[in-house]
Task: structure prediction
Amino acid sequence: MGVLLLVRHGQASFGSDDYDVLSATGWEQGRVLGRWLAEHGPVPGSVVHGGMRRHRETWEAIASGLTATPAAGVDEVGVDQVGVDQDWAEFDHLAVLARHAELTGVVMDHGVDRRAFQEHFEVATGHWTTADVNAGYPEPYDAFVARARRALTAASTLPGPAVVVTSGGVIAALAAALVVPEGGEIGPVWARFNTVIANTSVTRVIVGATGARLLTFNEHPHLPRELVTYR
Result:
């Protein structure tokens, strides 16, 4: 039986020209998680991350934290395998917002107001999760969930303990898929999970002979209050 640690990336640069870059807070969140893993375990035996810059930078920050904890006896990151899997990429939220606007005529100039953006985001993604496959979204919701499942299956073969650095939407999709009974509607549960995942939180999945099971969701005891962020 193996354990996968699904890590949401550190805080990205909301409101900047390039969102796909960690903020200073995001870098520190990653280093703090690395130090926590070095002290409390498990130190990863293998790592895979999505192809987005924020995924790679989060792993770099975690690795920096792992090597900076002499008390734990970690002189270097002894990871057997570090890989990139594009299936761990987040869904394209800008494409979802744009298509939702085309379909409904609801266009919102939210600027960098986080509360306004979140409200609009939840409405748009709610429509995406229930839309017909022919609604014109570049990646339909069902295809996104299938991609997340495929990524989990591939990561299950990695030498453990394995750390996966990905995005909140992907983690929420897998958590929902693992707790909703077969044939049940994942979308509403995904929406609830997706709004509460903290940056650099850890979700643990056990993989055994009977398949994958959700062990914990959204752990972030490594973060002091001032470093807890959700976007």
The mean pLDDT is 90. Residues 2-88+141-227 form a domain with the Rossmann fold fold (CATH 3.40.50.1240). The two ends are 33 Å apart (CA to CA). The longest strand covers residues 211-219.
